[in-house]
Amino acid sequence: MTVVRVPPVLRQEAGGAREVEAAGSTVRELLEDLERRLPALGARVYTEGEIQPFVNVYVDGEDVRTRGGLETPVREGATVILLPAMAGGR
Amino acid sequence: MAGYRELLEQTRSEIAEIDARGARELPSALWVDVRESDEWQEGHIPGAKHVPRGNLESRIETTAPDKAAPIVLYCSAGNRSVFAAKTLGELGYADVYSLVGGFTDWKRNGYDIAVPRVLSPERRTRYSRHTLIPEIGEEGQLRLLDSRILLIGAGGLGSPASLYLAAAGVGTLGIVDADIVDETNLQRQVAHSLETLGAPKVDSAKRAINALNPDVDVRTYRERLTSENVDRILDEGWDVIVDGADNFPTRYLVNDASVWHDIPVVHGSIYRFEGQVTVFKPQVGPCYRCLFPEPPPPELAPSCAEGGVLGVLPGIVGSLQTNEALKLALGIGEPLIGRLLLFDALATDFSEVRIERRSDCPVCGEQPTITDYIDYVEFCAAR
Fold it and tell me: Domain tally for chain A?
């Protein structure tokens, strides 16, 4: 299992959780598992087989788009961060 | 026993004197100013070295290792330098002159002078905790005093940033904000106060800054940053932009403008218990569009006004931004270029993710497709 950090704006879709668990040895498997467990959260991040363009997915601090995309391997114990942009400054 | 006058004239007869015109014609002479520090600070002959007469014997060999090379000594009126010249002769210097009439005559003749850049005694005291740090020193403090930093927003992030930048002695601070201070701001926006409720935030912030440090020249722009005014404001020349905006259109606008104006942006954003900080340095690291090519849909982009924010969070994130801005202004340390720092106040956790430049970035990439300002409100609403 891998711990996935959920950004504040997506916590409602994760039942308020700050971190959730999902299984998978690649980002694709992980996000598909996340979609099964938490469909609302999964849909925000991953639709029609693609990561939503406004969400960044980091595996161990690296943006998967700069690595192998959905095929980026996820090692056991990796940290996965879901991150949409935040604009607040006030 | 000879009095001062007799001793002076006696010594004068034992050394060589030279007038300004003659001294200027000496090839490759070393000029040494033997006056006191306060006299030197008010101006000196360009290119001269400063060795106060009291330290002459102990320091001159470091300053002038070649005892055969010509040396022109000067003081204020050409008397102390007479004694100094005698001392150098005794130390084995072979070609030493005392400048007739000293610095006073030099100035009177209309020759160039250099005024060294030093901190005034008041500033030396005020900034002593900076100047004590070897990486900053008096030179670094002067650099801060010469720096120009533009703050986008005088709210949660802009409040601590403006106060700490002002306290640090950043010489010019620009503040762009169209809002007025209201009660809901005071939970976190520490640059404002009950006394400035209802006042424009730029004026309220200016008041707080000047109460803290009158060295700071505050330029206020009581307007919302737009495609129409951004060039006018950025053209005034800024070393660093501290972005504390509260909406996506302004974030993308600041990004595009900063790339085109080649100004580094210290980015900070906050929501509830979490914050993000990074530095976008054009052509060196990624830009905001490399990080987030698209804004999220409106339902995933609530503002702090809609979703709330822990009062101290902008204090922490705005202070981290200030740290980056000061490093950029001073040219020291490792700025957060290509690194996005994530802070979680509930867990008290800092983590970092890497941001890479995108070769296909529409603004800073190899073949930019966006080369002029767009309709940023529409760009952000269309998602």
Answer: 1
C-alpha–C-alpha distance, residues B15 and B363, integer Å: 69
pLDDT at residue B176 greater than cutoff 70 = yes
Examine residue A46 and state whether it is found in any structural domain, yes or no: yes
Residue (of B87, B92, B43, B90) closest to B67 by Cα position: B92
pLDDT tens for A43-63 read 999 999 999 999 999 999 999
Q: Are B262 and B275 in contact (CB under 8 A)?
A: no
Domain limits for position A21 = 2-84
In-domain check, residue A89: no
| Residue pairs between chains A and B whose CB atoms are closer than 8 Å | 114
How is domain B147-381 classified at the architecture level of CATH?
A: 3-Layer(aba) Sandwich (3.40)
Chain A contact for B247, CB < 8 A? yes
The B residues from 310 to 369 touching A (CB cutoff 8 Å) are: 314, 342, 346-347, 351-356
Residue whose structure tokens are 């943006």:
A63
Phi then psi for B205, rounded to 5 degrees?
A: -65, -40
CATH code for position A38: 3.10.20.30
Domain borders along chain B are: 4-108, 147-381
Within an 8 Å CB–CB cutoff, is residue A62 touching chain B? Answer: yes
For residue B130, give how far its alpha carbon lies from the nearest alpha carbon of chain A (Å). Answer: 28
Note the pLDDT tens digit of each residue in B118-172. Answer: 899 999 999 999 999 989 988 899 999 999 999 999 999 999 999 999 999 999 9
pLDDT for B37 equals 86
- The verdict on A66 touching B (C-beta cutoff 8 Å) is yes
Using a CB-CB cut-off of 8 Å, the residues of chain A touching B357 are: none
Contact with chain A for residue B379, Cβ under 8 A:
no
Per the DSSP assignment, residues forming a β-bridge with B272 are B309
ipTM of the complex: 0.95
Q: Which of B289, B293, B272, B270 is nearest to B280 (CA)?
A: B289
Architecture of domain B4-108: 3-Layer(aba) Sandwich (3.40)
